Amino acid sequence: MFVQCSLMFAKDRYATNLLRSVRSVRASVHRWMLLYCIAVAVVFVQAAAQLLSAADAVPPLAVSEVAPGVFVHFGAIALMDRDNEGAIANIGFVVGSNSVAVIDTGGSVREGRGLLAAIRAHTNKPIGYVINTHMHPDHVFGNAAFENMGAEFVGHKNLPRALATHGPYYLANFRAFLGDALMADVKIVAPTQTIADTLDIDLGDRPLTLTAWPTAHSDNDLTVLDHRSGTLFAGDLLFVRHVPVIDGSLKGWLKVLDALAQVPAQRVVPGHGPLVTQWLQGLADERRYLDCLASDLRVAIKRGIQMTTAVKAACAAESERWELFDAYNARNATAAFAELEWE
Amino acid sequence: MRMSLRIAFMATAVAMVALASSASAEDAAGARDPWPDLAHSIFKDRPLLDGSGLIALEMPYRAEDAAIVPLTFRSMLPADDARRLQAVTLVIDENPSPVAAVFTFGSKAGVSAISTRLRVDSYTNVHAVAELSDGKLYMVKTYVKAAGGCSAPAAKDASEAQANLGEMRFRQFAPEGEASAGAPRAAQIMIRHPNNSGLQMDQVTHLYVPAFFIDDLKIWQGDELVLAMDGGISISENPSIRFTYMPNGAASFRARAADIDKHVFKGEWPAAGM
Q: What does pTM read for this prediction?
């Protein structure tokens, strides 16, 4: 468009030189052409600005209101990759009369921005808290989308250490799964407030209890209970359909399951998988898998079978019951073998 | 010997940092193979002979858990071969500190296999270089794909290993099939230790987890050395070493482990009458 305009000017100047007799007529045409080109340029710049902001302003993430004021984006049951943009974990937010609490921020800053857009589609209240249920990339890689807006970043007392020891590795290795574009703005954002046991916060007529658990799925698991609706955000202490992933302690997790069963939840948002209304059944399914893994591995360890062999056969009985079983079962068995060997 | 190995660990770590800093230029032209430089810095100008058929290195093709990747090294020297396995160096080429461990074996121990667990940071070649009693070095290698998902080569439960620091377990395994007088046996030593790599520093959390790992482990059968390990940061949390040996009739096994903070852990166990 600009090229076309400048050519028209060149021709116009040539014509003006040759046809001095009609200078006044040409001058008015010239002025008109100039205005036309300026108008075109303005439209062009506006369009370019819109394109740029479209790339920047991510569309709101699809969220379900699972209880009044409690919103959840249910992630894909998959491994993080470019296609799903890392959006594999369940993340959400709770709206009080004064402020909003975000519970996990997703597997990329893009997903975090989508969550922020979804929040802004429902409320203009300030974001008071960004709560991370644990260290894993699918839950914390969106943190940067919520920086510099005055929110407290809250996590388990072990979260800073876990981010320090795992974070640099996650930043380096997830580039291969997510690609440079999705990783561009991802950074490790440490909690500004940590919890050793429990913390009660209030979003305005909306008390939440945050609980830090002993080592289970990881060594920094945190749950969030919304008292008004009876909704528990279980983080990755509960997996549904998606095979549980052990990155902490199998034995610790089994103990934590006993304690979790005492939490009076009407509905539970698992870290992965659909909403749970039968809380105890969800826990029982998870326990069945962990027990199966433990009992198979204990037999192998007692027999002196080496880790490499033992992890291949462990808990094959559960293979049809879970999605992503082949992606995680041998890994779970490897970690559990190293732990159970100490019994 | 010990000092020179420590220097070798440090030198290779420094070399890798230097390589990493020039990595961006290399990436464009394809990944650079660090092995020639590593081999030179660890083994100087000693020739590395093809060890195929003499020694073997077994690792899973894909690491399941980046923090716990099992490795087995075997010597396949025939019984009538006059040569003996003296030492083996394990190198994870792409790890921040590539020399994972150097094992040396007692002259009468009859060790023909060792299994341990390693941290593997990324897609990498793993080399095992064995020194036989002919004074020559024999090399084999394997390739390991990095773990997927959210697994990382770091502690699962950092507080647990610290709380029980230095606790030891020793297991002796019944021989497979019919036991015969001249048959090798297998045993396993385990030590609770976080084995922190110390390369983890986070600018945001301002947390620095200092290097803290077992760097010296020895196991004796009676008074005879079975094996000694000079370990580096690529050995997994709670180091575990399973090994074969020839029983010498001694009544007990002893172990002594030391970490880089000079903690010393000792254990003694009766030899099982299997």
A: 0.85
Strands B168-173 and B185-191: antiparallel
Residue contact B67–A335, C-beta within 8 A: yes
Residues in B closer than 8 angstroms to A248, CB to CB, are: 156-157
Q: Is pLDDT of B4 > 50?
A: no
Q: Sort out which chain A residues have CB atoms less than 8 A from B150's CB and list them.
A: 136-138, 170, 245, 247
> Chain A, 119-148: which have a CB under 8 Å from a chain B CB?
136-138
The span from the CA of B76 to the CA of B237, in Å, is: 29
Give tens-digit pLDDT for A186-207: 999 999 999 999 999 999 999 9
Is the predicted pLDDT of residue B28 greater than 90, yes or no? Answer: no
**Which residue among B148, B157, B240 places its CB closest to the CB of A219?**
B157
A37–B contact, CB cutoff 8 A: no
User: Which residue type, as a one-letter code, is found at position A121?
Assistant: A
Which run of H or E residues covers position B87? strand B85-92
